[in-house]
């Protein structure tokens, strides 16, 4: 499966989820955002990347917990999901920890935050 096919599959899935929730002018606008996103590969990822799921001992990560939502997602998904509902006062945000742990995808985050209220 080529990159364009995988990109279309992930974009199509997001668009279908949005349209299943509501069909209105806002949904149409967000769908345009999603379709305009840059191309991305599909990777296996945790899907619930948050401090509560990262076990650290003596300053080193020793385990990643809570894998029941893991699966194949666009490569930006770990970064985006980690910032969908964070505690905005936590060190996770204040110290930009997530930006140092995984590759940041600020454009994709902006698009998904627009879609978030429609999807979840």
Description:
- It is elongated and about 50 Å long.
- The strands form two sheets. A two-stranded antiparallel ribbon has the order 1-4. It has a two-stranded antiparallel ribbon with strand order 2-3.
- The chain has 120 residues and is α+β, with helices and mostly antiparallel strands.
- The protein starts with a helix and ends with a helix.
- The chain has six helices and four strands; from the N terminus they run ααββββαααα.
- 50% of the residues lie in helices and 14% in strands.
- Helix 1 packs antiparallel against helix 2 and helix 2 (25-36) runs antiparallel to helix 6 (106-119).
- It has one domain.
- It has helices at 3-21, 25-36, 77-82, 91-94, 97-101, 106-119, and strands at residues 42-45, 54-57, 60-64, 71-74.
- The longest helix is centred in the N-terminal third of the chain and has 19 residues, at 3-21.
């Amino acid at each position: 499966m080529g990159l364009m096919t995988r990109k279309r599959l992930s974009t199509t899935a997001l668009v279908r989820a949005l349209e299943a929730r509501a069909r209105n002018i806002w949904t149409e606008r967000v769908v345009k955002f999603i379709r305009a996103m840059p191309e991305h590969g599909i990777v296996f990822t945790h899907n619930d990347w948050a401090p509560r799921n990262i076990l650290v001992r003596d300053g080193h990560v020793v385990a990643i917990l809570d894998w029941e939502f893991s699966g194949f997602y666009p490569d930006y998904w770990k970064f985006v999901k980690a910032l969908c509902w964070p505690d905005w006062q936590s060190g996770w945000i204040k110290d930009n920890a997530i930006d140092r742990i995984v590759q940041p995808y600020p454009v994709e985050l902006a698009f998904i935050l627009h879609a978030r209220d429609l999807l979840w």
